[in-house]
Design goal:
Number of domains: 1
Strand content: over 45%
Structural class: mainly beta
Order of helices and strands: HHEEEEEEEHEEEEEEEEEE
Distance between the termini: 76 Å
Number of helices: 3
CATH class: Mainly Beta
Number of strands: 17
Helix content: 10-25%
CATH topology: outer membrane lipoprotein receptor (LolB), chain A
CATH architecture: Clam
Length: 292
């Protein structure tokens, strides 16, 4: 009896599939014309060379911020505004944002590498605190410390004592001009450190490198619990004089659900930036909030 039912079902399948199924074509991603190869040490050498080549950086930019996501149940997009970024190694940073239309200061952030000051003139408010978050705030933007910019603007060099892994991957993107699917092969260079009390490897970051030009396309930075703390996504590279730099950098903070897109209009490297470029005097009468 069981054989009878198997035969009956087998005889019906051709007819059933003709009536109950539909086949449609999918657009095939377009393969790149050239795919480059490198080993882990070659990628490390290239990344370290790029980092060592920059001592100072000055940029004219546009900021676009968004706050929210699945946890909050909504996303708030803020109006884009112009600004300036100045960076000097090892960790000096100045970020200035201008109000739309008026072009007066929306905010001014300065850091000496260990502490920072953030002045918001139109709110008559300033925030001061350490560069690292000791006590997280429920307000996502209050957790936005200078190191987030510094770590995203430049991919830091990889030490000789750090452990590495190298895998290959690919992602499919849509060409905004041709509306075609493009296949982008890439390397994922993992950087780890070993727990001093065990053999467990602790992830520090993963650097994504395009195999079309061997330039970094992004970086995932992990916290001490193994969660992705910061994601930096690098847009197409362009030449700013003799220096090649991404046209845009998207900084994502998935745990706090906010992101900042920085679009670069002008970039200059290795011009002298004296200490006073990173000094911020808070006007008398300003309400100052101290963060931990």
């Amino acid at each position: 009896m069981r054989k009878f039912w198997f035969r009956a079902i087998a005889m019906c399948l051709p007819a059933l599939t003709g009536c109950l199924s539909h086949t449609h074509k999918l657009q095939q991603p377009k393969m790149p014309g050239l795919v480059m190869s490198a080993d882990a040490q070659q990628l490390v050498s290239s990344i370290n060379k790029q980092y060592d080549a920059v001592q100072t950086l000055s940029a004219t930019v546009t900021f676009q911020a968004s706050v929210g996501g699945a946890q909050k149940g909504k996303i708030t997009d803020y109006t884009s505004f112009r600004g300036f970024i100045r960076l000097r190694k090892p960790e000096m940073l100045r970020v200035l944002g201008l109000l739309p239309v008026l072009s007066t200061r929306a905010f001014d952030l300065a850091s000496d590498g260990s502490t920072f000051k953030l002045w918001i003139p139109h709110e008559n408010k300033a925030i001061e605190g350490p560069n690292t978050v000791g006590k997280p705030s429920s307000k996502a933007l209050e957790n936005m410390r200078p190191y987030i910019f510094f770590d995203s603007l430049l991919i830091h060099s990889i030490g000789s004592d750090e452990l590495l892994s190298l895998t290959t991957d690919s992602k499919t993107v849509v060409d905004p001009k041709q509306k075609e699917l493009l296949l982008q092969p890439e390397y994922a260079l993992g950087v780890f450190r070993q727990n001093s009390n065990s053999s467990v490897l602790i992830p520090e970051r993963v650097i994504h490198v395009s195999r079309i030009d061997l330039l970094p396309s992004g970086e995932d930075i992990y916290d001490k619990d193994g969660n992705i703390q910061t994601q930096a996504v690098y847009g197409p590279y362009q030449d700013f004089g003799d220096f090649r730099f991404p046209q845009s950098i998207t900084i994502k903070r998935p745990l706090e659900e906010y992101q900042i897109v920085i679009t670069f209009q002008q970039v200059t490297v290795n011009q002298p930036l004296p200490d006073n470029q990173f000094e911020l005097a808070i006007p008398n009468g300003t309400q100052i909030q101290k963060l931990q």
